Amino acid sequence: MRKTHPLVYFTLLAGIVLSAFPLYWLFVVATRANDVVGDWPPPLAPGPNFGENVGRLFAADDANFLLGLWNSLLSSAIITVSVVFFSSLAGFAFAKLKFRGRNGLLLVILATMMIPVQMGIIPLYMIMVELGWQNRMEAIVVPALVSAFGVFLMRQYAEQAVPDELIEAARIDGCSTFRTFWSIVLPALRPGAAVLGLFTFMGAWNEFLWPLAVLEADNPTVQFSLSQLSTTYYTDYTLMFTGALIATVPLLLVFVAFGRQIIGGIMEGAVKA
Amino acid sequence: MVTDLRPRTAPSTPAAGSRPPEQPRPRLRDRISRVEVKWSPYLFIAPFFVIFAVFGLFPLIYTAWVSLHDWDITGAGAFVGLDNYVALFADPDFWNSVVNTLGMLVLSTVPQLLGALVLASLLNQKLRAVTFLRMGVLLPIVTSVAAVGIVFSQIFDRDAGMVNGLLGLVNIDAIDWRADKWSSWTAIATMVNWRWTGYNALIYLAAMQAIPKDLYEAATVDGAGKVRQFWSITVPNIRPAIVFTVIMSTIAGMQLFTEPLIFGQGSFAISGGSLRQFQTVSMYMFEKAFRDFDYGYGSAVAWMIFLLITLLGVVNFLITRRSR
């Protein structure tokens, strides 16, 4: 292969600057005072006002930002653990166990993956009213405890990552099916489960339409809280940007820690069909 | 691990004869374990199906039932048949939201996927710092979605925004990006493009890396240039990935909600601007169901969105089949 043309690097770096700039701008404005935000040329270095902005953000009553942050952390964590566990369990069953109706049920899962679940939010809301879960985090967590995409992903992963002999050997040793799953299959599924967990967490963290429908401003998720800021404080850019920055930090940390796995997940798992 | 002779275990009669009967009552143990083997798969998939049936499938189907009623916050009213749909077809606000959604869909999907193709073919060169470059293009998808809306709302602000500042450098008057259809669509589509181009590029990159190198070598020997190779070898070979991304972006684009809502700011947020210039169908459904509490009508909108997505899926399918 020939040596790579410098122009390739130049274009790629330009692309990365475009990718990173809005994030950097988020950081700059969050550390500035309001009167310089609209200046031209725009301020490109961070300023000293971050602490003050955070103070104002936490004091902004109608946004309930801290509660929103806590709600999102807690619900996203529960959803992630649950989706990973139940998807691995069902994925293992679909990939490695024989039972009547297996192919039919798998087809049902495949079909439901294509249906946007958000289309059902009106009856879902009615269910929540029946259960008394309006404005409660149960409404956010419980419907998201399982995922068709997750089951499908883990089935694909289990198919190739768990050798049949391993299961057979466990069986001969007298392991129950669940014991086999727990101590033999689950460890082998770990890399796939990590990718699923990362995507699930990011998805749960970014969920917006459903929280907006079922929650109230006094018990928001972090995205809800941000939208609340943008309706009531929309001239106060430093306040909104500070909130947006804090709401992005958990995802950024996940990305820094697991970036390689995320890239691997997108490149391996996304297009299998 | 090496002796992978049989693809699948079929333990219908487990442990039968595989062990000498040391236990006093092997029969009972056998029976228990047979029952266990037979039923545990169902137990394993049950949590998914139970929760999904209650909170996923049932609401979806029930939406159709609600849409046939005059149903509001006080509960089910009269059965009205297709009246909601008839009203919907004559509802200019609904069609306006459909046009807006399709407009933003085109403005976001086309540049996004073309950009991803270019980016992927650049990333597919022999490069240093591969991980850094890949993480760099993927950075936007880790930005929380409302944050994207907030940042770009400011960047596209009429008075304080950077885009108008840059346009001022080339003597173009400041644009009120929220005021018109095209300008607001452009601003919102920019958010979507920014967020997803790198993601799609990685999907294409994965597909490109699976193309056998000798195809390119043969083409080079035949005198085909880089551009020719790109269109005649790369693109046809990653067709499944392209189809996949087109379908996924279409489904996501038809449900566009957060970005335009945040872009709207203030009290006109859910109506997508004072003249509904950037209200999407999802926003219209939300407005009908959760602002006006007209559940019947909102459900009819929901089903129309579903039908539109299906329709676009069929169109996608036909186009990609023909161009084979």
UniProtKB/TrEMBL annotation, chain A:
Main location: membrane
GO cellular component: plasma membrane
Subcellular localization(s) per the UniProt record: Cell membrane
Membrane topology, from the record: Multi-pass membrane protein
PROSITE patterns linked to this entry: ABC_TM1
Keyword Methyltransferase: no
Transmembrane stretches, start-end: 7-27, 73-94, 106-128, 140-158, 179-205, 237-258
InterPro entries: MetI-like (IPR000515), MetI-like_sf (IPR035906)
Domain ABC transmembrane type-1, residue spans: 69-258
Keywords, sorted A to Z: Cell membrane, Membrane, Transmembrane, Transmembrane helix, Transport
GO biological process, one term: transmembrane transport
Highest taxon above the source species: Bacteria
PANTHER family (UniProt xref): ABC TRANSPORTER PERMEASE PROTEIN MG189-RELATED, ABC TRANSPORTER PERMEASE PROTEIN MG189-RELATED-RELATED
Similarity remark: Belongs to the binding-protein-dependent transport system permease family.
The protein, known as: Cellobiose ABC transporter membrane protein
The organism of origin for this protein: Lentzea waywayandensis
Automatic annotation (TrEMBL), chain B:
GO cellular component: plasma membrane
InterPro entries linked: ABC_transporter_permease, MetI-like, MetI-like_sf
Location, primary (coarse class): membrane
A GO BP annotation: transmembrane transport
Compartment annotation: Cell membrane
Membrane topology (UniProt): Multi-pass membrane protein
Record carries keyword ATP-binding: no
UniProt-annotated stretches for the region Disordered: 1-27
Transmembrane regions: 39-62, 102-123, 135-156, 300-319
Transport among keywords: yes
Superkingdom in the source lineage: Bacteria
The ABC transmembrane type-1 domain, residue ranges: 98-316
SUPFAM superfamilies xrefs: MetI-like
Name of the protein described by the UniProt record: Cellobiose transport system permease protein
Organism: Lentzea waywayandensis
